[in-house]
């Protein structure tokens, strides 16, 4: 029993941090938001070269996975750097394709392409298949499908090819939300529903890890700002109100992380679904709380489009409800525990 | 003690009827973008035509000398009807009360009617990059010259200044004086020679603020409000007002709570009592804020620092109410739309007009009488 | 429209405050808790002499009411001084008897006794009749029935005489909770159910007013303590964390009060039930928040039985769920607004 | 990274089996009253007989040198079984770690075995009327005399001191020294000549604390822990421990969350999602605390000030978990019973072992590196 990242896993995270720091993600995000996908796709390929996109693809299909601990390590850094692009959706598609195996004609070709970073994928799940009733309102959007090579739609127990329709703007400028135009049925039946549930769990896990990374970055920049910003003749970080806000943000994030790691470790066990839901609840709440605290500590400057931290503040809110709201995931946890 | 509103029923009926027949057929574009700003200015003129733009002002300036109670009723009807946001709000709520208290008759006669009609839209120019919550650390200067003052320096977070006509705010006129002393309160046209304005995008990208750069901008003496050097006192008469009911009238939250209830009926599973409880809380708090408003207009004493209690309450209510709406919208909550715009707007509430941390200090020290921390 | 207490109402509150300050209620409470009812009953008679017990009794039955604004003014002071005894229950019984009118043989005799302070009454409502489903867990207790002259039980649409059974201890030592032994049926039918709903609303209103008074007192003693108590060489009230806690307590209470007054004013209107429920939600939450803040500001001393403020801290928690939890009252508000 | 607990499975099985066969048939009376104190002392002896009272201690003192992971497992099984509260907790959790760090071999051999067996129950005597959160302002004195020290003054909030046998805490041994300097850490029998103890009722009336009055109480040199004058350093080695996992092991909250889930199944309307969400949150947080415990025992570095993060988390979880239970009980929530006793106990959490306000300062300054306020 060793419930901390090992040296190799830590090094993997540090390597990604270095690549992403050099990539100047805020400028990549602003380009992506304007539909200039090239810098974002170049970053996608750099990250693929480190193996990030191979983590959810099994070795048998040309990947390195499934390696859920490495996956959450990577998504934590994707969150810390607010990297734009359908990473979570691609991981979910990889899980879906892997589960469906030979049922899909081009499945192994797509999986290989994903692992190598050649295939950017997206996915629309009008209802989140793993979550219990009451159902989420329908969300017929496939994140960044206009930048993707492969777009899928799961509708009940049908898997369809799909194309990007009209793009809707999100509060998070890095999130472009096209509706999808359904195409041919690629597979149907209970195996699709089961694969979609597995894909959903993996998407939830990736989102939870990303949220913790988003919250971490917000805490980091807020602490730096509180040390530097002077008001009333002293750094605002001297004021107890500011200190306590930031301490609270840290407490929330420190207890979200073990839940994310715990879910990654329970991959493959019957508790995996319950555990990813628990992680998503805590990560959503902790990151959103960190975002509101970051806004309050920064004051007006945090409320502006042009100041970088606002990119993370907006992402925290968008991801708070993406891949299932905290309420939906609480319902699933109770359902798993109490069988109701 | 009663809530007998029959005396204001005819006024309420008039406002309701006028709004019913004059409201724009379609919602106006956001007032934080150029097109919407113009549309909202036209709407202000229409309100003014019916003497409904500034109901509580004296008739000579375009109002109808409405009582505070009538003003509350006007606001209830205005927001219940879903009428447009008030693009003139910075002038009407922040400058006008200051002028009524410190302005000369000439200033009142010159400034107020065009403010009431929307012909001149005003922007508040208070904050500076180094002076947000700590307003006393202002550094932009007003230097005495023949017949007036020369402004230099920078202001920021000037709401609506991207498209507004005139600005107002305190400048340091005595470079030797420290902190609260040596400030002078001035008005200036935003297209004056020497002013550069740079719009700043709000968190949803809309240019809701601007930065203003002053390079030897001449302001004649007649545009000084109150005594030169007494700018802090003048400014405080605005903030007292800003923290009271005026900035966010109860009508606004009642209407928002009713819309939230509609959204809940439309979107929610009635068995989801967690969301139901949050909708109930929003409605209960909006009702509390309304009743507190009636209490306030029933009082004859100065509410003073108690206005900080209101600021905390409405700003937190506004955020939680809109968060509840976004949560009701589920995955659609992040999409552009009225609720998201309202949410973005609400997020500024705990920050501006004195952060809620500052307001809590004010309540603790000036209402509860706790000791100030040693400096 | 004048939505503040008038001079006479303010004077009434001040008079009660004076009587109750002189009565040294903490010692009365400690006696009451030990079953020594005499000092508490003497105080009951003093309060009756000022007219407190006549406020819910109509003039036609020998009372001065119904005067709901005066009633909430009185209960605010009863809460501020944590007066022990079944005041709320007696007010509810008065409402019940008044509504049933001639259906009860001894109704007018009891009403007159209540108004004059001769009849101390209590009441058990196993289900709170005005509140919607899900129903509260059954509560077959009649507060302080062992000290009462008249004990009633409403069970569905039956009104019964009742007697005090075994006394259960509450967290609030001033609240003795006997179970009731049901006796003869005194009345039955829809008029009982309707009268019980009216009685319940009046009980909820009185409890809400009491809660605001409890919270006020807790804020007052906490502010005093924060000014006096030194730690780290300064009064703890200089610390921003303490200041902000106390400011939050004030904000909550300042907005609960208008809801209580607003409910009193809407007595007799169709919105009365909705409005008392709104008041109870806000008063419960504000008083309980004030209690937790008072405990935190006082530290260990606030956690002791012998230090007076703990009497109020415990009462705030007990009244938080007495006469319907905040959740039950939220459900009723929504039910009234949305018709669900 | 794994959660592979198979290596500790035999130990877990042994603990579970022993508890299954030895647990008292009926719950013991509250350990905060005299009768319950005695019953809990007897239970400690039984645990000791199975070498389960202090599993992580070396064998020579009555333990079985369990690893931190085994200790976590022991605690999970102990609370899951519904075993009695630990009347020896102040000695085991607060004094023993201090002795392991600062005690002499003679002290360890003399004090620990009788602590492990429950023969001697220890009470912490730290706080004074003027020194709660501000421990450095202690005033009770230890005066040097031949062969030892004379204690004078007062201690308060001494948990379990109403019925315990011995006490321990810091006293001011150098009257000239200020604040953190000149303190000496001592142990003393509570029935020593010159000690008067006055039980203090907790908020539910139970005498969970006592005040101690010292009048020339002689303590021999052998009962000084660490160097005379170094009492602050000795005390801090206790607080580091107190704020970590030891004081409130994850097993306790896991068991409480499971009982809450049972209560919810039994009492709640499943359609009441508001309560359901709170039950889910309690369970999720208990799981988070458990996983954080596994993380902590996997680390080899000192967690230092990070222990303050744990203190805030468990103390707030304990309150909200019990509030949820009381709300589930509805009108029965105010009645005496296990959940109410747990609630009352939880209320002390945010106050003792350093208030949560102090903990937030520690986190901000020592973990996040924010500047200390100027004094």
Automatic annotation (TrEMBL), chains A, C:
<comment type="similarity">
    <text>Belongs to the acyl-CoA dehydrogenase family.</text>
</comment>
<dbReference type="InterPro" id="IPR036250">
    <property type="entry name" value="AcylCo_DH-like_C"/>
</dbReference>
<keyword id="KW-0285">Flavoprotein</keyword>
<dbReference type="Pfam" id="PF00441">
    <property type="entry name" value="Acyl-CoA_dh_1"/>
</dbReference>
<keyword id="KW-0274">FAD</keyword>
<feature type="domain" description="Acyl-CoA dehydrogenase/oxidase N-terminal">
    <location>
        <begin position="7"/>
        <end position="117"/>
    </location>
</feature>
<dbReference type="InterPro" id="IPR009100">
    <property type="entry name" value="AcylCoA_DH/oxidase_NM_dom_sf"/>
</dbReference>
<keyword id="KW-0560">Oxidoreductase</keyword>
<dbReference type="InterPro" id="IPR009075">
    <property type="entry name" value="AcylCo_DH/oxidase_C"/>
</dbReference>
<dbReference type="InterPro" id="IPR037069">
    <property type="entry name" value="AcylCoA_DH/ox_N_sf"/>
</dbReference>
<feature type="domain" description="Acyl-CoA dehydrogenase/oxidase C-terminal">
    <location>
        <begin position="198"/>
        <end position="334"/>
    </location>
</feature>
<dbReference type="Pfam" id="PF02771">
    <property type="entry name" value="Acyl-CoA_dh_N"/>
</dbReference>
<protein>
    <submittedName>
        <fullName>Acyl-CoA dehydrogenase family protein</fullName>
    </submittedName>
</protein>
<dbReference type="InterPro" id="IPR013786">
    <property type="entry name" value="AcylCoA_DH/ox_N"/>
</dbReference>
TrEMBL record, chains B, D:
<keyword id="KW-0285">Flavoprotein</keyword>
<dbReference type="InterPro" id="IPR046373">
    <property type="entry name" value="Acyl-CoA_Oxase/DH_mid-dom_sf"/>
</dbReference>
<dbReference type="InterPro" id="IPR037069">
    <property type="entry name" value="AcylCoA_DH/ox_N_sf"/>
</dbReference>
<feature type="domain" description="Acyl-CoA dehydrogenase/oxidase C-terminal">
    <location>
        <begin position="229"/>
        <end position="368"/>
    </location>
</feature>
<dbReference type="InterPro" id="IPR009100">
    <property type="entry name" value="AcylCoA_DH/oxidase_NM_dom_sf"/>
</dbReference>
<feature type="domain" description="Acyl-CoA oxidase/dehydrogenase middle">
    <location>
        <begin position="123"/>
        <end position="217"/>
    </location>
</feature>
<protein>
    <submittedName>
        <fullName>Acyl-CoA dehydrogenase family protein</fullName>
    </submittedName>
</protein>
<dbReference type="Pfam" id="PF02771">
    <property type="entry name" value="Acyl-CoA_dh_N"/>
</dbReference>
<dbReference type="InterPro" id="IPR006091">
    <property type="entry name" value="Acyl-CoA_Oxase/DH_mid-dom"/>
</dbReference>
<comment type="similarity">
    <text>Belongs to the acyl-CoA dehydrogenase family.</text>
</comment>
<dbReference type="InterPro" id="IPR052161">
    <property type="entry name" value="Mycobact_Acyl-CoA_DH"/>
</dbReference>
<keyword id="KW-0274">FAD</keyword>
<dbReference type="InterPro" id="IPR013786">
    <property type="entry name" value="AcylCoA_DH/ox_N"/>
</dbReference>
<dbReference type="InterPro" id="IPR036250">
    <property type="entry name" value="AcylCo_DH-like_C"/>
</dbReference>
<dbReference type="InterPro" id="IPR009075">
    <property type="entry name" value="AcylCo_DH/oxidase_C"/>
</dbReference>
<dbReference type="Pfam" id="PF02770">
    <property type="entry name" value="Acyl-CoA_dh_M"/>
</dbReference>
<keyword id="KW-0560">Oxidoreductase</keyword>
<dbReference type="Pfam" id="PF00441">
    <property type="entry name" value="Acyl-CoA_dh_1"/>
</dbReference>
<feature type="domain" description="Acyl-CoA dehydrogenase/oxidase N-terminal">
    <location>
        <begin position="11"/>
        <end position="119"/>
    </location>
</feature>
């Amino acid at each position: 029993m060793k419930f901390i990242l090992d040296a190799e896993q830590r090094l993997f995270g540090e390597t990604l941090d270095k690549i992403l720091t050099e990539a100047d993600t805020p400028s990549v995000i602003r380009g992506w938001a304007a539909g200039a996908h090239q810098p974002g796709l170049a970053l996608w390929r750099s990250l693929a070269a480190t193996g990030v996109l191979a983590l959810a693809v099994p070795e048998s299909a040309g990947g390195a996975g499934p390696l859920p601990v490495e996956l959450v390590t990577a998504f934590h850094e994707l969150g810390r750097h607010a990297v734009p692009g359908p990473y979570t959706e691609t991981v979910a598609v990889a899980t879906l394709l892997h589960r469906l195996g030979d049922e899909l004609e081009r499945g192994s070709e797509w999986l290989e392409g994903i692992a190598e970073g050649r295939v950017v994928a997206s996915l629309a799940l009008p209802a989140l298949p793993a979550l219990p009733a009451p159902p989420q309102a329908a969300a017929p959007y496939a994140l960044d499908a206009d930048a993707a090579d492969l777009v899928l739609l799961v509708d009940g127990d049908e898997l369809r090819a799909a194309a990007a329709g009209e793009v809707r703007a999100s509060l998070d400028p890095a999130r472009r939300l096209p509706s999808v135009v359904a195409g041919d049925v690629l597979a149907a039946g209970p195996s699709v529903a089961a694969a979609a549930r597995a894909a959903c769990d993996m998407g939830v896990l990736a989102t939870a890890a990303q949220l913790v990374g988003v919250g971490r970055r917000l805490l980091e920049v807020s602490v730096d700002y509180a040390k530097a910003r002077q008001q009333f003749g002293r750094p605002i970080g001297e004021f107890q109100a500011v200190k306590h806000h930031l301490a609270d943000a840290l407490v929330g994030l420190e207890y979200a992380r073990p839940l994310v790691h715990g879910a990654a470790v329970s991959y493959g066990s019957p508790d995996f679904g319950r555990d990813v839901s628990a992680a998503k609840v805590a990560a959503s709440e902790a990151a959103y709380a960190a975002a509101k605290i970051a806004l309050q500590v920064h004051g007006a400057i945090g409320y502006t489009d042009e100041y970088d931290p606002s990119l993370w503040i907006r992402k925290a809110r968008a991801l708070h409800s993406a891949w299932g709201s905290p309420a939906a995931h609480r319902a699933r946890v109770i359902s798993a525990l109490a069988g109701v | 003690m009663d809530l007998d509103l029959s005396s204001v029923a005819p006024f309420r009926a008039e406002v309701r009827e006028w709004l019913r027949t004059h409201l724009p057929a379609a919602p106006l574009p956001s007032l934080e973008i150029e097109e919407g700003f113009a549309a909202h200015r036209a709407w202000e003129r229409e309100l003014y035509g019916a003497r409904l733009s500034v109901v509580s002002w004296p008739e000579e300036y375009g109002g109808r000398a409405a009582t505070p109670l009538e003003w509350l009723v006007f606001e209830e009807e205005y927001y219940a009807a879903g009428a447009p946001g008030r693009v003139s709000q910075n002038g009407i709520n922040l400058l006008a009360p200051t002028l009524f208290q410190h302005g000369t008759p000439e200033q009142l006669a010159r400034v107020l009617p065009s403010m009431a009609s929307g012909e001149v839209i005003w922007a508040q120019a208070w904050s500076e990059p180094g002076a947000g919550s700590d307003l006393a650390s202002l550094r932009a200067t007003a230097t005495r010259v023949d017949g007036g003052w020369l402004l230099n320096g920078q202001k920021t977070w000037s709401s609506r200044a991207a498209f507004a006509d005139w600005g107002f705010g305190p400048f340091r006129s005595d470079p030797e004086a420290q902190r609260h002393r040596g400030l002078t309160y001035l008005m200036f046209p935003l297209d004056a020679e020497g002013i550069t304005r740079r719009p700043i995008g709000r968190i949803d990208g809309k240019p809701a603020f601007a930065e203003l750069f002053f390079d030897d901008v001449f302001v004649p003496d007649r545009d000084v409000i109150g005594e030169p050097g007494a700018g802090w006192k003048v400014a405080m008469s605005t903030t007292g007002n800003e923290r009271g009911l005026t900035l966010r009238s109860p009508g606004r939250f009642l209407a928002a709570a009713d819309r939230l209830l509609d959204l809940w009926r439309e979107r929610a599973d009635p068995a989801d009592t967690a969301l139901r409880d949050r909708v109930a809380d929003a409605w209960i708090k909006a009702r509390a804020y309304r009743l507190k408003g009636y209490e306030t207009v029933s009082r004859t004493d100065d509410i003073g620092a108690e206005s900080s209690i209101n600021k905390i309450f409405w700003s937190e209510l506004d955020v939680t109410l809109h968060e509840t709406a976004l949560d009701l919208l589920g995955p659609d909550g992040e999409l552009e739309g009225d609720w998201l715009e309202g949410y973005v707007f609400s997020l500024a509430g705990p920050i501006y007009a004195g952060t809620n941390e500052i307001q809590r200090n004010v309540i603790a020290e000036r209402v509860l009488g706790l000791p100030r921390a040693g400096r």
